[in-house]
Design brief:
heterodimer; A: six-stranded antiparallel β-sheet; B: alpha+beta; six-stranded antiparallel β-sheet
């Protein structure tokens, strides 16, 4: 009972780490971006950066292709890698859950150990994982994104169509593909 | 000492720095090129993204510009403007006039303290178990020895207790209680030195001292369930008969002079009988046995490790994964040897089993009482069944077993290492949350403060943890997977096969073992 639990924990964590480290933007698509509006209370927009053209920023969102006036955007955050703050929190929760359960099970399987004490120990370990995940999240979130001025020429290279929208192409033609980044 | 601490701190910082740098995150930064100035393929990034004016894309893994400078050719995938793949990878040849932009990307890295924290946590929380299961050479184990300092501050030559002898892997982590055969006045301090004297790594979770007031004319003994009892009127045997003849003189008192027999030539599990006689008794009694194992069990353990040889890592990993059941199987040969099974009979009455003395370990003896009710119907007979050559019997007595005692359970008030206070070690031994890991030659001096008591306190040591034996180069020469498997699958047969090897060195094992103590 004990070691398979530990092995599963190790495999899951390794997969979590390796998967994240190996994560790449699909080569043919534009980078995932977050548009932060100037207007307070306005929602951020997330999606795939399609193009910067015709004085607009074109983004494929979950709601379809939308274009935005750079003047209404405070900054554009471009995803550089997938080890985000959210990933760190998930790492802490998943790792903590697996590790805590495995440790509790293995501790309880040892003759003479108190199940309640084992559970408390497992919960403590899980808490450490979760805490580390929470502490690491801000740093990873910051490194995972590049913040650019919406008017910056540095934004174009991250677009799917860095040369701009082809003439005569209806924006709806760009809606196909995998779900837009959130 | 200071140098060692400084070196460890430096090593720790370097390790963390290494972890942090090793987890820099790879990224790719795009770079655009005008079609009129395509990047050279040689020495360039491995892929070239060709953005066509139509919005379509070519991703080429190798490319070249035609001699005229107006065409670009290369191998790779083509994508529609919606980024659907257009067929299989093939050679493409396009006019640069149809190209809007060219894009390369250069590898780069970003580092994050958060990732360093995550990796360090993963390594620390998962690393110890991983290291021990994958690489037992640096981790594999025996048991800590305990020496109670005398009033003059001197350590005895032989240890009074050995902790958790059968806990040869983490999965077998155990709590152990040993009688120290020491009584001290209440209100005094007792210093116990815990040593790692073998090529082993010890993981000690807790060490406690238990004390109970010694009854007048008697002593405190532990039962098979680790409960303590007041034992009075200890009576020595009036007769003792073993296969070699009269054994009474050897078993009269607990004095270190013990009775042991040679192991069987053909089967190490072969058993023998020792018969003892005592005066008639009535009421609650206990057969009190003081004994320790010979080095037969140690030989078998070491031999198993030698047979496993280079596969010791897999063996331990399997043991750890298999849980307690696998642990019990791994100890199969020890189980086949068994403990000292005790029967009693009164007058001409029938034999009845009252339990077993089965305290593992060859280093320090232990004393246990096996309770039973005596009717007084004639002289008391006690029969011991034990594997030949497996036990050193120091004394056997019958005692009047009194009330159950609740001992005081003491944590160390101070812990010293190399003459310096070690509060971190003290915290670990008191809290029991994390193991205190010791290596060959390590010694910790634990001081316990006894409460005030009108009568002297009989002392017991409670230890909890596990250990890993280190693999030794000379063992690898005896690698024999067949015998290793046999020890697990058929312990009885393995004990027959190993008998000649054990008998060849039985006479000199004890001396060699005590000479191999590892001290700094």
């Amino acid at each position: 009972m004990r070691r398979p639990g530990c092995r599963a924990t190790a495999v899951a964590l390794a997969a979590l780490l390796a998967g994240a480290c190996a994560a790449r933007s699909p080569e043919a698509y534009g980078r995932a971006v977050t548009l932060v509006p100037i207007a307070s209370g306005a929602p951020k927009v997330k999606g795939e950066l399609l193009a910067v053209d015709q004085g607009r920023i074109w983004v494929r969102t979950r709601d379809g292709v939308q274009d935005f006036d750079p003047a209404s955007v405070r900054e554009v955050r471009v995803r550089r890698h997938n080890l985000t703050g959210g990933w760190a929190v998930r790492w802490g929760l998943v790792g903590g859950l697996l590790s805590g359960v495995a440790l509790t099970a293995s501790c309880s399987s040892v003759e003479g150990n108190d199940v309640g004490g084992c559970g408390a120990g497992g919960a403590g370990v899980a808490g450490v994982w979760a805490l580390v995940g929470l502490l690491a999240a801000p740093s990873l979130e910051a490194s995972s994104q590049l913040s650019l001025d919406p008017e910056s020429a540095r934004l174009k290279p991250y677009a799917r169509l860095p040369a701009g929208l082809p003439k005569g192409l209806p924006p709806a033609a760009l809606e196909a593909g995998p779900p837009a980044p959130r | 000492m200071e140098d060692r601490r400084r070196n460890r701190a430096v090593a720790g910082v370097l390790a963390l720095a290494l972890l942090g740098s090793a987890c820099s995150i790879g990224i790719r930064e795009p770079r655009l090129h005008e079609p009129s100035a395509p990047p050279a393929a040689a020495g360039a990034p491995s892929t070239l993204k060709v953005h066509l004016r139509s919005g379509e894309l070519l991703v080429l893994t190798g490319w070249q510009v035609a001699a005229g400078g107006d065409r670009l050719a290369g191998e790779g995938h083509a994508y529609t403007v919606a980024r659907e793949k257009k067929g299989e990878p093939r050679r493409h040849d396009v006019s640069l006039a149809d190209v809007a932009l060219l894009e390369t990307s250069s590898p780069d890295t970003v580092s994050s303290a958060g990732l360093g924290l995550i990796v360090t946590t993963t390594v620390v929380l998962g690393g110890i178990t991983g290291y021990c299961t994958v690489n037992p050479k640096g981790c594999f184990g025996s048991c800590p020895t305990f020496y109670v300092e005398g009033a003059d501050g001197r350590e005895p030559d032989r240890p009074q207790a050995e902790g958790f002898s059968e806990a040869i892997a983490r999965v077998l982590e155990a709590r152990d209680l040993d009688a120290l055969e020491v009584a001290r006045p209440g209100g005094t301090d007792v210093a116990v030195v815990m040593r790692n004297e073998a090529l082993e790594t010890h993981a000690v979770r807790r060490v406690r001292l238990l004390g109970a007031p010694r009854p007048p004319g008697g002593l405190v003994v532990a039962g098979p369930d680790d409960r303590l009892y007041a034992a009075r009127a200890l009576t020595a045997p009036v007769a003792c008969h073993a296969p070699e003849g009269d054994c009474r003189a050897m078993l009269l008192s607990t004095d270190g002079e013990d009775r042991a027999s040679p192991a069987d030539d053909e089967d190490l599990a072969a058993r023998e009988v020792v018969d003892l006689a005592f005066p008639a008794a009535r009421g609650r009694r206990g057969v009190v046995i003081a004994a320790r194992q010979t080095l037969l069990s140690t030989f078998l353990f070491y031999q198993t490790m030698a047979h496993v040889g280079r596969n010791a890592g897999e063996f331990l990993a399997t043991l750890e994964r298999g849980g307690p059941e696998a642990g019990r199987r791994a100890l199969g040969m020890a189980r086949a040897l068994g403990g000292i099974d005790v029967e009693v009979a009164e007058g001409d009455g029938p034999w009845r089993a009252i339990g077993s003395f089965d305290e593992p370990g060859p280093i320090a003896g232990d004393r246990r009482a096996l309770p039973f009710e005596a009717s007084g119907a004639g002289p008391l007979r006690v029969r011991l069944h034990l594997a030949r050559g497996h036990w050193r019997l120091d004394s056997v007595a019958v005692a009047e077993l009194g009330e159950r005692l609740v001992p005081v359970r003491l944590e160390p008030v101070s812990v010293e290492r190399d003459g310096q206070r070690d509060d971190a070690a003290r915290t670990r031994l008191r809290d029991g949350e994390r193991h205190l890991v010791t290596r060959p030659g390590d010694a910790y001096r634990l001081v316990f403060r006894l409460p005030r008591s009108e009568r002297p306190l009989d002392l017991f040591l409670e230890s909890e943890g596990f250990y890993y034996e280190w693999m030794r180069a000379e063992w690898l020469a005896e690698e024999d997977p067949g015998l290793a498997a046999l020890a697990l699958a058929s312990p009885g047969e393995a004990l027959r096969r190993l008998a000649p090897a054990y008998k060849a060195q039985e006479g000199r094992l004890e001396q060699a073992f005590w000479a191999s103590r590892f001290r700094k």
